[in-house]
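Progress report, Aim 2. The chain analyzed during this reporting quarter is listed below.
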Amino acid sequence: MRDFLSRLGREREDFPKKEDIPSPCPYCGELLPKKPTRKRKCPYCKKVIYVRTDPETREKVVTTEKGAQKIHARKKRIAYRNRWLRSLASYGIGEQDFVAEKARLGKQFGKEPPDADIIWGLFNSLVERQPSTSPYYEMALFLEEEKRDFIPILQQSRKLDLLPWKEAGMEKVKIHAADQACPSCKSLQGQVFTIDAALKEMPIPNRECTTHWHHPTQGFCRCVYLASFDD
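Predicted structure tokens for the chain:
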């Protein structure tokens, strides 16, 4: 057995490594002496060859500049999808739901839907199926990243913060500004409202907030309500 394993090890050493296997230039097709492991110029056509990791197979790919850009775009798309699926996972939504929603929208519109439409569809179906669930804050973050109007959704999130307190018989709440809040939001710190007044006036989200992330004109107010027991 020992001799067999020793012989097997020697045979494996004779196998060529991946980087030692000749590889064609992605531009001119000429066979390179060995597969590149980093960016370099083709010795024949002099064009720059790129080496990238395929985000799905995790294999090293020898490609052109345009091919490298496409791989980068795919990486961003996969990271975007996975990031929002992690947010939805806390509500019991997973990859299989993403695939099902993609198929549903594709059938409805006759073409492959953008990932953003699929994510938004999942959020909306969640709200429809589980009215008591309140993923509205995450939905507002999603719309902000997409540079769409998120204020009504963020208002709904704050409204749902207040309703359980009102049902429990609590009368007042106070505003707590987020860390590193903008000056306008800091000015709201500690202000006390009855729950009925807060529901009617909706002082937060603060429409004068200047904390801009992706949306060019709407600031994303992160102020929240806290219970107030002031007289």
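Strands lie at 23-24, 31-32, 40-41, 48-53, 60-63, 172-176, 192-194, 224-227. DSSP finds eight helices and eight strands in the chain. These observations will guide the mutagenesis work planned for the next reporting period.
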